[in-house]
Amino acid sequence: MLESMRRGYDKARILEAFALIRSFYTNAAISADIICGFPGETDGDFHDTYEVCEKGQLLNAHIFPYSPRRNTAAAAMDGQIPAEIKKARCDELAALHSETRKRFVNSQTGENARMLIEKLSEGKSFGHTENYIYVSLPRQNRDTVGEIREFIFDPDYVINPAIK
Q: Residue 2 falls within a domain, yes or no?
């Protein structure tokens, strides 16, 4: 599938890249854009995508259905995928992503973490950790936007409760 999309890599190379990244940075948060239903995508191709997402343990994934664009090679390709199949595949990947994201976030529990303070409000400091988890901590007097704050990670600090 990646070849027909004219990508210069395949499933094995993606998984190798994930492993290489994590060999240097164990807690690396990896994000990806994922297109479901590109023309000619078979059930086997989708299974490969699912497997990469599952093994990759993505923190963030932008999952969307392929949509043809006028005057592009893909719009004229045979094997256009019906909308209901594209939606079902997107939904299946979104459910997987929700679970892998929860596992990743929960795996950080008790770890030393650092947050870039991006916003302050009454009693709260907001920002992203080094591995791009958006958190809110009780504000300390010394908290300043643009500064780094160290803390012990707790999933209760995560802004989006759907990922805890």
A: no
The residues that bridge with 129 in the sheet, in sequence order, are 115
pTM of the model: 0.79
Q: Are residues 25 and 62 in the same domain?
A: yes
Residues 74-85 pLDDT 10s: 888 888 999 999
Instruction: Let me know if residue 4 belongs to a domain.
Output: no
Q: What does 5-39 look like in DSSP terms, one character per residue?
A: TT-S--HHHHHHHHHHHHHH-TT---EEEEEE--T
Integer CA distances (angstroms), 139 to 29, 40, 115, 132, 159, in order:
25, 52, 12, 19, 15
CATH, residue 27: 3.30.750.200
